[in-house]
Amino acid sequence: MAEQVVKTMELLPDYQEEFLKNLLANIFQTDEDGNIIGGLATESPLYGKPVYQMEGGGTTLDPTMAALDLDGNKIQFYETPEGEFTTDASLAATDQYGEPIFAVEGGVAPPEAIGFTDAQVDAIRRLTGYKDPVTGEVIYEGLMGAYEPYLDESLDMFRKSADLAESSTGRYDPLGEIVYDTVTETDPVTGETIEKQVARTVTDPETGEVSYVREGGYEAFYNPFVEDVVDTTLADIKRQGEIERSRLGSQLVSSGAFGGSRQAIAEQELARNVGEQVAKTGSELRSAAFTGALDASMNAFENQQKRGIDAATMFSQLGTGIGALGEAAQQLGFQDVNALFNTGRLEQEQLQKEYDAQRAAQLEEAYEPFARFAYMRDILSGVPVSGTGISAVGIPESSSFNNVLTGANVYSSSQGDGNIFGKLGGLKT
Prior knowledge:
- It contains seven helices and 18 strands.
- It is an alpha+beta fold.
């Protein structure tokens, strides 16, 4: 038995139908031939219409009325910072990349992320270094590795400290320290210039004896007037001996023993005493002078060594301070760059917010007609409807071709040898 198909159509009242037709015509409208006439949906609200220059100098949105340049291109206006029109790209407002902005009517600005601000660019240049692209002049040296010169100078100070400390550990030599000269020679194998220390020598012109040149020995501190003191002292002793000899002679004369053996023995004893006194006094004076010179030279040597140690300590501390200064200078530079970059980031975030808010406003303005359309559609759906219902019942007749297929058991739902498609099922019309 054939199935019955019932179609139901609900019609709007005339005034609602007319309202809906007019509403839809504002969205999309075509002529009888199917050509698009206009409507909100025929063009994207995201793209504005370029503003062209007309032959007479006016403005137009119709590209067919635009004036042409020497190359045959349509002359499009640029937008100035004051919101006016110009054909001079040098007077046009520019985007964040320095590109001139074309004048358009309507449309929405494309989504875009605000790039680095001037403060951020300057911070990056200070961090990595920057040269003038035209002159090649170094504007910023860059903070990466800014501590290296300080470390090099600090290393020099430590080397000086080590040299001074090493030179201050020598053992005292009463004859003095040997003087060395720096001699530059060329290595016969490698050809490199090398420096080495060679002891300074002096040759005696009379004996030809070669000896090292020394400094700081006891002789440098030996009092040059010691011999004068010794000679004067010995002369005084000898003079006192002569006085004693005269007194002894007078005494022997008064006793009647002058010229005898007694006088000879007394004079010999006196001469021996004077000689012993001369030798003793001379040796004591020279020994005291030598001891004083030795003590003075040793004290001078120790003072020199102490000054070397003090200087080594000073250079070591100075090297440490210079290294710390380099580290502090770089750290302070990083802080300045970080502060400058963060300042630029605040500006960047503010510009991004302003741009997003402006674009959101443009989106709202572009889609405002569609919002009005939706509003009017909602009004239509909210109006009470009293439509007329039309029902149509159709009873389709069996097809003779269907009977043929059923007889051949092609699409029959039953299974068997005559069903050529097996389990594919049956056809229902």
